[in-house]
Amino acid sequence: MFGLANPDRFLRFTRPLMPVVWTLAAVLLALSVWLAFTAPEDFRQGDTVRIMFVHVPAASVGLGIYLALGVSSFFALVFRHPLADAAARAAALPGAAYTALALITGSLWGKPMWGAWWVWGDARLMSELVLLLFYIGYMALRASIDDEAKAARAAAVLGLVGLINLPIVKFSVDWWNTLHQPASLLRAEGPSVTAEILAPLLVSMAAWAIFFLAVWLTAIRTGIVRRRVLSIRARRALEA
Amino acid sequence: MLDLDMGKYAAYVWPAWGVSAVVLGVLAARALLAARRWSAELKRLEAERPPEA
Fold first, then answer.
1. Which tens digit of pLDDT belongs to each residue from B21-43?
2. Of the candidates A58, A41, A72, A54, the residue with the CA atom closest to the CA atom of residue A194
3. Which of A48, A172, A189, A235 could form a disulfide with A124 if both were Cys (CB 3.0 to 4.6 A apart)?
4. Does pTM top 0.80 for this prediction?
5. Total domain count for chain A?
6. Residues A91-137: pLDDT tens digits?
7. A positions 20-59 inside 8 Å of B (CB)
8. Residues of chain A found within 8 Å of residue B49, distances taken between Cβ atoms
């Protein structure tokens, strides 16, 4: 596992994997679209249940991505490892995009079902918004410091702090009174969703997770190559 | 059976799917284009002067 932390070995090891992961993501996404529009209407939500097949994966994978960012930040901070820093950095944009999609699609579901686009003060909605702000803050902080090493360290600290928000997002529906429905998949009693909806939901969650993996690995590889390019340029500028 | 008639909820379902498709498309395109650009730049620099030289 730690052998892969060597950037060269990481590049060599992931190179043949890339076409496989991208193809798998494309196939799973296509399958999830088909399943989403062949699933039966929900007897209470009607056709709005089809928003769930983009909302739930965007929200759950978006939350998982922050865990990847936070853990990578930890390794970047403690071991000062460039690959961990590249991993944290590469997770920020897709994480922000997924979380923004969760908020937008949630809002598009909320209007017809709750009668409101947004509810200020709702614990799940607010903690999800805070998650988006952590992602944006992370990217803004990196962009605002010119010195790469300093930017990496400052961003890693912010990345770690944001981990505190993850259990708040996940358990907000249990800890507070919120409009958002409680967990329907990861519960002690098992999923409360019928099989006809559960199967497309799980496929779409897998599709969004693998798609993130494809984007993430590609961006980590680019981060390593970029670092190399910048160091060659700097060295040659010194020689010149 | 494929069901594309979203009835009275069409105005909510299609924008949700549309914005998701656009965002995922942009993420993929951005990642792949950046990968190509930086790899090409590294190759160019190394071709100018091989790493061991």
1. 999 999 999 999 999 999 999 99
2. A41
3. A172
4. yes
5. 1
6. 999 999 999 999 999 999 999 999 999 999 899 999 999 999 999 99
7. 29, 34, 37-38, 41, 46-48, 50-51, 54-55, 58
8. 236
User: Can you tell me the ipTM of this complex?
Assistant: 0.93
Centre a 10 Å sphere on the Cβ of residue A219 and count the other Cβ atoms it contains: 24
Return the number of CB contacts < 8 Å for A and B. 93
Q: Is B39 on the interface with A (CB under 8 A)?
A: yes
Structural domain containing residue A142 = 24-38+48-175+193-239
Question: B42 and A232: CB-CB below 8 Å?
Answer: yes
Task: Inform me whether the C-beta atom of residue B50 falls under 8 Å from chain A C-beta atoms.
Answer: no
Mean pLDDT for all residues in chain A = 93
Angle A148-161/A52-79 helices, nearest 10 degrees?
Answer: 120
Would you say residue A183 lies in a domain? no
Is residue A11 situated within a structural domain? no
Shortest CA gap A145–chain B (Å) = 21
Taking contacts as CB-CB distances below 8 angstroms, the residues of chain A near B38 are: 222, 225-226, 229
| Cα torsion through A195, A201, A204, A206, rounded to 10 | -80
Task: Say which residues have a Cβ less than 8 Å from residue B1's Cβ, sequence separation at least 6.
Answer: A38
Report helix angle A123-144 to A148-161, nearest 10.
170
